[in-house]
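Lab meeting, item 3. Inverse folding demo.
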């Protein structure tokens, strides 16, 4: 979280000034909380330039619940398969869940290349009959990011943007559903932002449990059952920070690009000492995954970096190695310190 947001959160834990109560004790039925939801929604609309027919929802269940809610809404009973791209660890999870709900087709899989690259346009053929196309914008584990919008304009695009949401401008008007849990760029775990077009929500069957039905959440204005008041409040503070301190998503993208460039330059200059996981064209601006020549050096890298105060550099257990996650709130000086450490470590070893 940005430091200015943390300072406000610290204050709010004790007392939200305009309410005189701790954020942990304010009712989700209060007018104050309704205003929090309204402003958070409005800020997200402004940041993304969201078309009017999108609903902005703050849901629970994580991105994982969306893996199922999307096909429950759009795939049950479909004779045509929905199209999915298997681009990494999170895509695989999405596909497993979608299969339970109806027919799906995997258009491309990165399994053969151990998810080290993304498909090119020539490798993808989209069907006009698919009920929708689903892909993961940024594969958090492997550090692979799509730098273009995929699919056809006449087939709904559904995108898991959990790990790059609000890190850059996005062509929201090209999508039908965008979902992103908060815990990367926009808040603490416990809330998932779901942007859903009215036409999609209207397809939700009455047979669905209310909690899994977009229409019920829209009617209840994200207050169907007790929502995570604290998490949604922090999302509001982060959107204010993006608007007022950063100056919008184009500026945020510029900062994120600079951070990523620094780290990738450190990999490229290392003459093979550091090996990036991702194909260069598909490199993520959020997660930089790489390996060292052997396990002993890798352990030394972790130990020495920890001793200097760096944390969270261990790669995901699925692929091992090192992973630097450089989400919005991580500052450029923090990245500079890491690249300096990487240069020093390489020289010493
Ligand atoms: C891209 C992506 N999708 C989905 C998930 C799963 O999210 P959740 O734990 O909120 O269900 C993650 C978790 O890190 C992720 O990075």
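The presenter then showed the designed sequence:
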């Amino acid at each position: 979280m940005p430091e200015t947001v943390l300072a406000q959160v610290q204050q709010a834990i004790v007392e939200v000034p305009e309410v005189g109560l701790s954020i942990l004790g304010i009712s989700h039925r209060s007018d104050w909380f309704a205003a929090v939801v309204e402003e958070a929604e409005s800020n997200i609309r402004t940041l993304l330039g969201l078309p009017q027919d999108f609903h902005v929802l703050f849901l629970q269940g994580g991105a994982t619940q969306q893996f199922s809610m999307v096909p429950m809404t759009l795939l049950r009973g479909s004779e045509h398969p929905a199209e999915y791209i298997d681009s990494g660890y999170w895509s695989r999870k999405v596909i497993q869940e979608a299969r339970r709900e109806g027919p799906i087709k995997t258009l491309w899989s990165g399994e053969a290349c151990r998810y080290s690259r993304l498909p090119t346009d020539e490798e993808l053929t989209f069907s006009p009959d698919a009920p929708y196309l689903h892909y993961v914008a940024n594969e958090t584990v492997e550090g692979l990011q799509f730098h273009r919008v995929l699919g056809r304009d006449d087939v709904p695009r559904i995108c898991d943007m959990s790990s790059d949401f609000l890190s850059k401008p996005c062509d929201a008007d090209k999508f039908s559903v965008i979902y992103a849990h908060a815990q990367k760029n926009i808040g603490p775990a416990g809330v998932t932002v779901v942007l859903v077009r009215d036409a999609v929500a209207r397809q939700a069957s009455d047979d669905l449990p209310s909690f899994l039905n977009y229409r019920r959440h829209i009617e209840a204005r994200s207050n169907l059952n007790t929502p995570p008041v604290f998490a949604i409040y922090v999302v509001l503070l982060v959107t204010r920070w993006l608007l007022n301190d950063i100056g919008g998503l184009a500026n945020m993208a510029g900062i994120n690009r600079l951070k990523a460039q620094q780290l990738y330059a450190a990999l490229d200059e290392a003459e093979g000492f550091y090996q990036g996981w991702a194909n260069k064209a598909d490199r993520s601006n959020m997660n930089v995954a790489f390996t060292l020549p052997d396990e002993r050096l890798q352990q030394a890298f972790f130990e020495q970096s920890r001793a200097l105060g760096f944390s969270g550099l261990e790669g995901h257990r699925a692929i091992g190695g090192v992973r630097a996650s450089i989400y919005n709130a991580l500052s450029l000086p923090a990245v500079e310190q890491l690249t300096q450490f990487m240069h020093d470590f390489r020289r010493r070893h």
